[in-house]
Amino acid sequence: MARWWAGTLSQGADTRAVLGVAARLAGRTMALKIGLSALALLLGLLCVAGLFVASSPGAPTLGGGECRLEGDRPTGVPGNYVPWLQRAAARYELGPRGFSIIAAIHYVESDFGRSNLPGVRSGTNSAGAAGPGQFLSATWQAYGVDADGDGERDIYGVPDSVFATANYLRASGAPRDWHAAIFAYNHAEWYVQEVESKAEKLGGRVVCTPGEVPLLGGDADLRRVETLDQPRAFKAIPSRFWVGGGAPEVVDSRLWADLIWVLEAFDLRAVAARETEHQTHGDGTAVDLVPAPGQGWDETARRAAETLGWREACGASGTAPVCPLIPAIQFIGYNGYPDHGDPAHAGANAHLHISWQSSSFGCSGLCPPPRWVRVFALSP
């Protein structure tokens, strides 16, 4: 409850400060116990953060590792935050306190996205503040950053949220006047004092152990479906997964993580997404995929199609109930469907087509995102 009110007041008016104080008092004792033990360990990350420079701008290598005070228990700081905190503080020239202030803000606002962000694309409170940094829409429009280079300023993504916090603090007077910068983030004196108090207590020699880098799309529960109505936006396919002509095309942002899981899990690449001259691609809910270079069709495209419910018996249908598709998928075009499938079935036009369930069945011209999209569940 305490952090919920902090998010409600993010970049908010002074008139809501009293409500924030009242809401936080009830949980202050527990928050301090948790916060001081977790946050008192972060500043030392500055000493070792150089070890975790990513191998490419959009791919931090720490993965699911943990950071701990030498000889002590883990800090509880998500490992994927470490390189982005370091980079953001350096990019916006926030000086030696930048790393710890950004970290403290993200802890106070959302416990690094853990306290009130239960879903993959959730985390918007009743006042409209969203994501790990709890940004209001207008503030995000002004200061949001595409930190990981995926083509979207993602308010729910750790890299973009961390960089946006740094950007906003810099524009608000940091590091010259940290008090003014933090006050601008949340217009309440108690908030400034809490962030600065936590940041000042950060210290100690921190040792970070990289974990196994997970699939970008996470682990899939193909039989559990989620219906998402927000955010109604488009998100670009990462360039490393794009082998179509021109710049990478976009898909509906709500199914983006599903698509990345399919691409990674089955070694596939996208050749078409939201574009014209297709019957159903215009709203961003359909993609055409081919094997990655050097890979065969059976072990990639066919295996993906079968995993999502396609069978040879689907024939020229590709939809349920003729085709026993998983709940989130609307249509699969593969062997047996005209002009789809492997080279033996579709010749030069060979590809695997996948469409996700949505409030429409796509469109042939470019059209807005549908009202809702169904996706299969992913765990981070």
Q: How does this model look, in words?
A:
This protein is of the alpha+beta class and 380 residues long. The protein folds into two domains: 2-209, Lysozyme (Orthogonal Bundle); 219-379, no CATH class. The chain is built from 13 helices and ten strands. The strands form four sheets. It has a four-stranded antiparallel β-sheet, covered by helices on one side. Strands 1-2 form a two-stranded antiparallel ribbon. It is elongated and about 65 Å long. 48% of the residues are buried.
Number of strand segments = 10
Known CATH architecture of the largest domain: Orthogonal Bundle
The largest sheet, given as strand count, sense and whether it forms a barrel, is: 4 strands, antiparallel
- Which CATH top level class of the largest domain fits? Mainly Alpha
CATH topology of the largest domain: Lysozyme
| Helix content estimate | 25-40%
Give the ordered list of helices and strands: HHHHEHHHHHHEEEEHEEHEHEE
Structural class: alpha+beta
Shape descriptor: elongated
- Overall pLDDT confidence: 76
The total of helices stands at 13
Q: What kind of oligomer do you see?
A: single chain
Overall domain count: 2
Unreliable segments (pLDDT under 50, ≥5 consecutive)? 1-10, 12-76, 117-122, 203-207, 209-218
- Work out the strand percent: 5-15%
- Whole-angstrom Rg: 23 Å
Span from first to last CA? Answer: 24 Å
Give, in spatial order, the strands making up the sheet with the most strands: 6-7-9-8
